[in-house]
Amino acid sequence: FRENVVDDGASFQGVLLGASQKPQRRGVYKMFHGTSVACARLIIANGFKQSSTGLLGKGVYVSRDQKKAQAYPRNAPSSDRVVFELSVRVGRVKRIDKDNHPLLLTWSSNGYDTAWIPPNCGMQCVPSGLEEDCVFDPKRVKVVGIAHAPNPTIEKEVYTMYHGTTVGFARSIITSGFVPSTKGMLGPGVYVSRDKKKAERYPLQENPSNRVVLELEVRVGRVKRIDKDDHPMQYTWHSNGYDTAWVPPNCGMKAVKSGLEEDCIFDTKRIKVVGIAKAPQTAENELKKLPLVVFFFGMLQKHLHKKR
To answer: How does pLDDT run across 238-266, given as a tens digit for each residue?
Structure first.
């Protein structure tokens, strides 16, 4: 890295450099972060948080070397290790290349956004000799994919989400399943949110007394982050191999004035209704009984079919 890197806030996925290469093109780079399955869930849901301690002090520890990321967390079994692929806006970078460097723990308070340990620089505290970075502000680090997992655990991860609809449509969804919207901000799919308050506002033009919020289990699969207006994959994420499009909260998109989180699931089979999160009292009991009605009706049909 050079001592100063221009950061213009670019939001493309990033350039992957070799561990010892100098930065090129706008200061946005592809990097990796190794974590546990449990922490991966939290990062996907809430974003990164700073480590309070570490070799380079506070920050998010990442690397351009995927093999290094795969060795973390160090004390976790390989079956509990996940590697995120990241897009990192490095900003102003400080090279730390010797033991007891005067800015080893104070680079951030001296105006730098990222500390960089180049590979094979001879630091005794980095016996592996592998490249390492520490990014002070978690907002500079975005998850763009799963680079490595011991099994499909994360990609098949099930999340609790919510869907706002009318009493009439809630009946239909519970008995017959979801029907994808043919159009919308993210194209065809079922629109859901992890934010219950957002779901409670839908349908937007409907009287609140006719609104129902369904609690869902969603297998998100492969997720594409859509975080800016006119994103190149805003309508084509599914044709590019993704199962879910995700608009993170407060990402600044004009199309999401509320700033609340939103998801679009292409395949309705990935969504299961597990409860009624909110409903008018007059309809709640009826809706809660519907799954049993559907179950017994299905059993009756099977019984009659066997008798034929």
So the answer is: 999 889 999 988 888 998 988 999 999 99
Gap between the Cα atoms of 135 and 58, Å rounded: 8
SS3 label, residue 129: coil
Per-residue tokens: 177? 């399943």
Q: At the top level of CATH, which class does the domain 158-307 belong to?
A: alpha beta
Predicted confidence (pLDDT) per residue in 213-245, tens digit:
999 988 888 889 899 999 999 999 999 988 999
HEC letters along 183-229? CCCCCCEEEEECCHHHHCCCCCCCCHHHEEEEEEEEECCCEEECCCC
Whether a cis peptide bond, with omega within 30° of 0, leads into 138 is no
Peptide bond into 232 cis (omega under 30): no
Looking at domain 28-148, its CATH architecture is Alpha-Beta Complex (3.90)
| H/E run at residue 286 | helix 281-307
